[in-house]
From TrEMBL:
Pfam families: AMP-binding (PF00501), AMP-binding_C (PF13193)
Protein source organism: Chelatococcus reniformis
Residue ranges of every copy of the AMP-binding enzyme C-terminal domain listed in the record: 433-508
Superkingdom field: Bacteria
SUPFAM superfamilies for this protein: Acetyl-CoA synthetase-like (SSF56801)
Membrane-crossing segments per the record: none
Name this protein carries in UniProt: ATP-dependent acyl-CoA ligase
């Protein structure tokens, strides 16, 4: 059965334009020698190289027992290994399930369990964390990078050769890959409970990537957001759609940013609010406008955006997106309205509603809800979470959980998060998960985690705690208690001890009250105390 036999809605992109296997095959045939990817280690892939890497990785995965529709976990930093694993899985019609590199403990156990995966591809430095958790269906771990370290009882550990194959023929399929097939499962931050597993189709990723409508085949995108976030995935896919190229780095780095842009002739990238603050904080240089960067997608859009555009001579764009949706709101270049998220893009319907899904008047705040003209152009639910799926998709609209307002000209403005997520340095943090670890401390009776404004324009985590009778709390000791229990980006910067937490009649913590009172509270600041928490850096040395 040929892939052309897959029937689609007329509004849906063709298989050749959205299914990764067909899209990559088309690019490799049309531009085999054009550079697609450049990596921090100095290596590069043409489109033909990329297809060959995907095919051989796909065939190696078949030898490991991976079939079409299976889930496979990826726990790797940005680089060639992460990219070829993603592409190799999709060559098979299998499902890419990346894990945040900072996860450990209960968070890690949850995402491994809900994935249903039997196979995990990992950096060896992370292997020891698996020994600390229940591993559900997981049977085999392939160490693609770093040293394997001590074996983990109950797991078969394979080296990097397990992902290599001499077979350069495209792997056979059980059936044609369809646009609506699940291509990835991406985990949310988890705001009212554990992280949810977002089911993402090829159409969903294509629709998200199409939000970068200013890209051309001549553009080169700096991908410095991780491949376990949609912020790393959709730019890569957008470039593949357009036939351009990418530069893949493990993370954003202020000191090397402009050197990377110049050395690799980067024309476009994403700059989050904190990144902009760090770059603008660097001393002015005589040649700081002498670079190839033309387009910058900046979220959120505010005064740093204006300053960045003026100082560095780039066109700045903004948008609104989340893992579950597909850039329903986007701006043109330099929209000039502080706080704006953009305007509705073609192909989506938006409403701003009250708690009963009734539309609020123009200018008033309410929850943003979304639907699309094209089937499958947003998530198709949460894996193994039917109640959460039904709640999010109630009344035929996807409910974002975010408060917006729209003006008479159709400009949309983000107001606040209805959910309790905290955004710090590009990471969405679950207050639920922070509070669970705070509550494990023997001195803490009750806890709430809220956002507190950072000098860099985003959020810091503020832990508001009450103490057990007769207990005392050393904030510094609390931080050291939390460090091995959670990712570095989740560790609170501020600690505030209060007599009691304000609650509603139904015993829900009134976090809005805490946010309004925090500026007058006696907050302990770990950075002022000289303790800065940094994410663990993984060694780039490859085994084999």
């Amino acid at each position: 059965m040929a892939e052309a036999a897959v029937r689609t809605d007329l509004r849906m992109p063709a298989v050749a334009d959205c299914v990764l296997r067909a899209l990559l095959e088309g690019r490799a045939a049309a531009s085999p020698n054009k550079i697609f990817a450049l990596f921090a280690d100095g290596s590069s892939w043409t489109y033909r190289d990329t297809l060959d890497a995907a095919i051989r990785t796909g065939n190696a995965l078949r030898s490991l027992g991976v079939n079409q529709g299976d889930t496979v976990l990826s726990w790797l930093p940005n680089g060639p290994e992460a990219l070829r694993l993603w592409f190799g899985l999709n060559m098979l019609g299998a499902i890419y399930v990346p894990i945040n590199l900072a996860y450990r403990g209960a968070l890690l156990e949850h995402v491994v369990g809900i994935s249903g995966a039997k196979l995990l591809v990992i950096h060896g430095q992370l292997l020891e964390r698996l020994a600390e958790i229940e591993r559900a269906a997981l049977e085999t771990v392939v160490v693609a990078l770093g040293e394997a370290g001590e074996p983990v009882p109950g797991l078969t550990i394979r080296g990097p050769d397990a992902l290599r194959s001499d077979d350069g023929a495209a792997p056979p399929l059980l059936r044609p890959i369809a646009p609506w097939d699940t291509q990835a499962i991406i985990y949310t931050s988890g705001t009212s409970g554990p992280s949810k597993a977002v089911l993402s189709s090829y159409v969903h990723l294509h629709a998200t990537a199409s939000g970068l409508d200013y890209l051309t085949a001549d553009d080169r995108f700096l991908v410095n957001l991780p491949y376990f976030h949609v912020g790393g995935l959709f730019p890569t896919y957008a470039v593949l759609i357009k036939g351009g190229s990418i530069v893949v780095t493990e993370r954003f780095d202020t000191a090397s940013f402009w050197a990377t842009v110049r050395a690799h002739e980067v024309t476009t990238c994403i700059v989050l609010g904190s990144m902009a603050s760090f770059l603008l904080g660097q001393p002015a240089a005589a040649d700081e406008r002498h670079h190839p960067l033309r387009h910058v997608l900046m979220v959120p859009y505010g005064q740093p955006s204006f300053t960045f555009a003026e100082r560095f001579g780039c066109a700045v764009y903004t948008h609104f997106n989340m893992t579950e949706i597909s850039v329903p709101i986007r701006s043109g270049a330099n929209p000039g309205l502080p706080g704006v998220a953009g305007r509705k893009r073609p192909g989506v319907d938006l409403r701003i509603v009250d708690a009963n899904d009734c539309e609020v008047p123009v200018g008033e705040s309410g929850e943003l809800i979304v639907r699309t003209d094209c089937p499958w152009a947003m998530n198709h639910g949460y894996r193994d979470a039917p109640d959460a799926t039904a709640a999010a998709w109630r009344n035929g609209w996807f409910h974002t959980g975010d408060a917006f307002r729209v003006d008479a000209e159709g400009n949309y403005y983000f107001v606040d998060r209805l959910k309790d997520a905290i955004r710090r340095r590009g990471e969405n943090i679950s207050s639920f998960e922070v509070e669970a670890e705070l509550g494990a401390h023997p001195a803490i009776e009750d806890a709430a985690a809220i956002a507190y404004p950072s000098e860099h324009g985003e959020d810091e985590v503020l832990a508001v705690v009450t103490l057990r009778e007769g207990a005392r709390l050393d904030p510094l000791e609390l931080i050291h208690f939390l460090l091995p229990r959670m990712p570095a980006y989740m560790v609170p910067r501020f600690v505030w001890v209060v007599p009691e937490l304000p609650r509603t009649p139904t015993q829900k913590v009134q976090k809005a009250v805490l946010r309004s009172q925090a500026a007058q509270g006696e907050l302990w600041d770990r950075e002022a105390a000289g303790l800065r928490v940094k994410s663990e850096r993984l060694l780039s040395k490859r085994t084999g």
